[in-house]
Amino acid sequence: MTLSAHRQGPSPAPAPASTRAGAAVRVARRTLLESLYLLTAPVTALLGLLLVAGGLCLGTAASLLPAGSSVAARALALARWPGDLEWWRIGTVRPRPGGTQGPGQRPRSKETADAADPGLWLDLAHAVVVLPVVLVTSLLTGLWWFIAVGTATYPLRNSRIPPGALRPMTLHMGSGQSQVALSLGLTSPPGRLAFALTVAVLLLATLPLVTRVCVAAQAGLGQALLSNMSALHRRISGLEQERDTARAQAVAAVTAEAAALRRLERDLHDGPQQQLVRLAMELGRAQHHFDTRPELVRAALAEAVVRTQEALDELRALSRGIAPPLLADRGLREALAALAARCVVPAALDADPLGGRLDPAVETAGYFVVAEALTNVAKHSHARRCTVGLRHAGGTLRVWVTDDGVGGASLAKGHGLQGLADRVRAVGGLLRVDSPEDGLTTVTAELPCR
C-alpha cells in the first residue's frame, strides 16, 4: 500500500485593511453622490418640464411671425437647456455610452435648434416620462435614508427614557377598519437598541444597491432619450438621411434631365437643323434654275444629297445619345466597346464580363459617363491615348476613363462634368474626378446596383 502526500498551495493572503477601508470610502462616496442625484431629481424634472414645454410653445409661435426668428431661436435654445442639465447630472453618476465618465457637453445632431429637430421633441418626451420615475426613485431613496438615519440615531434620542416608561413597540399597517397592528414587544431598552441598530445596519448596507438600481433606471432613461447615440436617435437620424438622400436624388434627376433636354435642343439647333436649312436652300436654288440652267440644278441636287446624308448621320448620333440601341440590345460592355472604338483618341477597353444585365437606369448612367468623358478627352485633353474601365463587384458598378492629357478637369460649377455628376447622383451613385495639372486624368463613377 502506497501513501501519497498531497501538498496544498499557499492560501491567498487577506486583503490589507487599508485596501478594504479605501473600498468602503469609495462606496460611501458613490452612494452619497447618487443619493444627492436622486433626491434633487424631482425639482430639476419639474423645472425641466416647464422650461421645455414653454420653450417649444414660444419658439413654435415665434417662428410663425415675420421677425420672430431670433426670439424662436432663443426660446428653442432654452428648451434644450433642461436636457443639457440632466445630461451633465447623469455624467456625474453614470459612465457615458463611450465609456467615459464625468460632466460633459451633450452630443447633438444639429448645431442650431429648430422646431424640426427631433432632439427637441425627445427632450419633451424625456421631461414628461421621467417625472413619475423620479418621484418613485426619490421617494424610495428618501424613505431608505430617513429610516436608516432614524434607527441609527435611536440610542442618542432615547438614552434618558426610564425603563418602566417603555410601551410595547407596535407596527401599524393600513388605515381605518382595515388597519392591522403588529406588536413587536421590545419593552426593554437593550432589546429596542439591538432592534434599531440591526435595522440601521441592514438599511445602510443595502443603501448602495438601492441607489444603484434607482440611478440605473433614471439615468438609463435619460441616456436613451437625450443622447443622439441612442437607438431612437439613430433611427430618426437614419430616416432624415434617407429623406435627404431621396430629395437630393430627385433634385439631381430633375437637373440632369433638364440639362439633357437643353443639350439635345442645342445639338438639334446646331446640327440637323442647320443641315436641313441648307438642304432647303439647295432645293430652292434647284427649283429656281430648273428650266434655265440644268448644270446648276444638278450641282444643287448633288449638294442636297450630301446635306441629307449629313443630317441623317447627325440624327443617328443624337438618337444614340438619347437611347443607344446597342446598349439596349447587347448590354453595357458591348456599348462601351463601341464607344472606345469610335473615340478619336485611341482608347483601350479594360472591362470584366458582367455576368448578366443590370438595372437599365444604372447601365444608362454608366454609358453616358463614359460617353461624356470620352467627348471631353477628344475636345480638351490633348491626350494621346486613354483607357475605358468597367468592374462590377459587391453590388457596385464602377466605370472609369483615364487619359494622359493635360489635366485640370474639375467638378466645379461651370465645368461640363457638373451635369454628369447630377446624372450619376440621380441613381444614387458618386462621381469622382482626379485630374492634377500635367498628370493623368481619371473620371470614375460608382453606381449602386443589384
TrEMBL record:
SUPFAM superfamilies cross-referenced by the UniProt entry: ATPase domain of HSP90 chaperone/DNA topoisomerase II/histidine kinase (SSF55874)
GO molecular function ontology, one term from the record: kinase activity
Keyword ATP-binding: yes
Top-level EC class: transferase
Catalytic reactions of this protein: ATP + protein L-histidine = ADP + protein N-phospho-L-histidine
EC number, UniProt record: 2.7.13.3
Keywords on record: ATP-binding, Kinase, Membrane, Nucleotide-binding, Phosphoprotein, Transferase, Transmembrane, Transmembrane helix, Two-component regulatory system
Domain of life: Bacteria
Name of the protein: histidine kinase
Natural source organism: Streptacidiphilus alkalitolerans
